[in-house]
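R.M. (postdoc): so does anyone remember the format we settled on? I'll just put the structure tokens first.
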């Protein structure tokens, strides 16, 4: 997770996303990312993830 966190942190926690309330999703950046990865993992198990931008 550390690699993905570092790779995606600037986008996920951009000024625009912070302004729009992303920090309301958890107590810390790491906690928010862990929750997001957990959700993505569950979606992947169910075959709901798609590759590429939508």
């Amino acid at each position: 997770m550390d690699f993905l966190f570092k790779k995606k942190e600037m986008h996920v926690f951009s000024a625009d996303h912070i302004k729009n309330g992303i920090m309301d999703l958890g107590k810390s950046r790491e906690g928010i990312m862990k929750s997001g990865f957990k959700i993505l993992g569950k979606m992947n198990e169910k075959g709901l993830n798609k590759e590429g931008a939508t």
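R.M.: ...and that's the designed sequence above, right after the tokens. Also worth knowing: The two ends are 23 Å apart (CA to CA). Residues 1 and 24 are 21 Å apart (CA to CA).
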